[in-house]
Amino acid sequence: MTFDHHQFKRLERAGYDRLGPRYLAAAGTRNEIATALLDAAALAPGQRVLDLASGPGLLARAAAARIGAGGLAIASDISQGQLACCPELLRVAADGEALPFADGEFDRVLCGLGLMFFPDTEAVLREIHRVLRPRGRLAFSVWGRADEVPLVECALACMRRLLPPPKVTRPSIFRFGEAEELNRRLASADFQPGDIHPCRFTLEFASASAYWQAFLDLAGGAAESLSRLPAEKQQALAAGVADELLPHACPPGYRLTSTVLIASTVRS
Fold it and tell me: Is the pTM for the entire model greater than 0.70?
């Protein structure tokens, strides 16, 4: 199947626009990941910071508090619906593969659980390299391997089991789950080898339906595609995911521990 770069982006934008405040509420449950990423960024007062794939601006808001009134934090995302959730921040609706910023404009670029959603990873890393000043720092997080991220993999496995292959293929969100692959990509964009370490977090769900709704509230383009299915198909997925969740049962609900990689690297 041929990958349709433009259709993928249209679905992502539509999905995240539609989620709006629901995404903000769901993403707020992963505070330890955000804190680990901000620590890796080594932020300091007065810096200029770009939060790429910012969504509702959680990282940008936290970064602004760390750099103080003398600094500048900008939230950037392809989804205007997501950026509408952080009206108090400076916001720029933009595609990360073609950023509307001058060369060397930022001291830091952040990207929380976003890099794996860009169809052209080389392009977005080149753009990040371009807008960072020399010796500027990129700090980001990505999902670990599929077997380390039941929070997402349980839903995806259910979809693979109950649905035909999608009409629009999606890049695997686990494709940067190995530090070696991450460093290979960084080196190709002229970044130094990254400081990469795992960060594990645990979420609990009262029921399979609660888990499924939480997945939909964060899934962007995938959630958009699922919303277009017949109602009976949507109901079958919501009920069927209980099978994938069985290994994580913790009566009366489910307990899932997942891994992200936190990476920090310097522009050469």
Answer: yes
The domain spans of the chain are 5-146+169-201+259-266
CA angle 90, 261, 186 (to 5 degrees): 75
Condensed to tens digits (0 to 9), the pLDDT of residues 196-212 reads 999 999 999 999 999 99
CA distance 4 to 8: 6
pLDDT for 218 equals 86
Say if CB 79 and CB 13 are below 8 A apart.
yes
Amino acid identity of residue 146, one-letter, is A
Residue 168 DSSP one-character state: S
Beta pairing class for 253-266 and 195-205: antiparallel
Residues 101 and 116: their CA atoms lie apart, in Å, by 22
Report how far apart, in Å, the C-alpha atoms of 175 and of each of 63, 81, 146, 160, 246 are.
27, 27, 9, 17, 25
- CA 178 to chain centroid: 16
CATH code: domain 5-146+169-201+259-266 is: 3.40.50.150
Contact 229, 6 (CB under 8 A): no
Q: Write a three-state SS string for 109-123.
A: EEEECCHHHCCCHHH
Residue (of 77, 263, 104) closest to 185 by Cα position: 263
Check whether 1 has a pLDDT greater than 60.
no
Answer yes or no: are the C-beta atoms of 101 and 43 closer than 8 Å. Answer: no
- Crossing angle of helices 150-162 and 208-216, rounded to 10°: 90
